[in-house]
Amino acid sequence: MRKLIAIDFDGTILNSNHEISEENIRAIKKAMRQGHIVMILTGRQPESIREELAKYGLDLPFGANNGTEVYADGKLLERTALTPSQNKRVAFAVEEENVPYKISTNMGVFAPENWSGRLEKVLSSGRVPQEYLNDVNFEKMTQPPEKLGQTMFERIEEFLERKDLIALKYLILAFDPEQKSRLLRKLASIEEITITHSAPFNIEVMNRNGNKGNGLKVMANYYRIPLENTVAIGDEANDIAMFKTAGLAIAMGNASEEVRKAGDVVTLSNDENGVAYAIENFVLKD
């Protein structure tokens, strides 16, 4: 029975050194040799996914930006964007709070020109919990957009006026808990969107159908694999949508309690080759 195995990237297949272990690579290749389809389903950009997989000689289908873009066999299968109205309302909500944010689009990532200034202001405010600063995602998520080669804009209106841009996902850093709660209330008033997170201090906003669950459905349909024969492996709240969709949901040992409860079983942590353990013990032994 052929299965589709969807694996998250950060905190799941990548260990704390941001590497894919030999054990995980061997397990993935073993599953593929047995006829299963292995895909990556992550909040990362397509370019980042391709670059990371290429380091290890892996060529896998994937869902990027939390499943809003799904690729297989070198082609885009589906793209789920925010509507112009949703895009505008989300943009004005984050601008009103003056938080650092990035927008994933069909043409890469965009961010306000004063992104670093916004970040510095909140980090020096004295309102950021120490647990946020110690979080494993802190360093990765606070890399300035200019360092990553991302496009900057001076005013949000410049971005919104571009007819060639399709907004897929907003990645918002909300380090001030009070401000985060206020922003979440504003976003909750916007119809037909998905709000999730992949760290305690971030907010991710997509169209209602732009989530990892839908990304898994698209890939399963492409390969003609029934959803009951799909497997999802992840560690963060943005993985719960694919947990609800998959036939078998596997939470990483390093996952939060919320995610562990959403899974059917729990594997080892990302520093203990949890993906390899999950494939060997919950997929291939079935």
TrEMBL record:
It comes from the Bacteria. InterPro entries: Cof (IPR000150), HAD-like_sf (IPR036412), HAD-SF_hydro_IIB (IPR006379), HAD_sf (IPR023214). This is Cof-type HAD-IIB family hydrolase. NCBIfam families: Cof-subfamily (TIGR00099), HAD-SF-IIB (TIGR01484). It comes from Caldibacillus debilis. One of its GO terms (molecular function) is magnesium ion binding. GO terms for cellular component: cytosol.
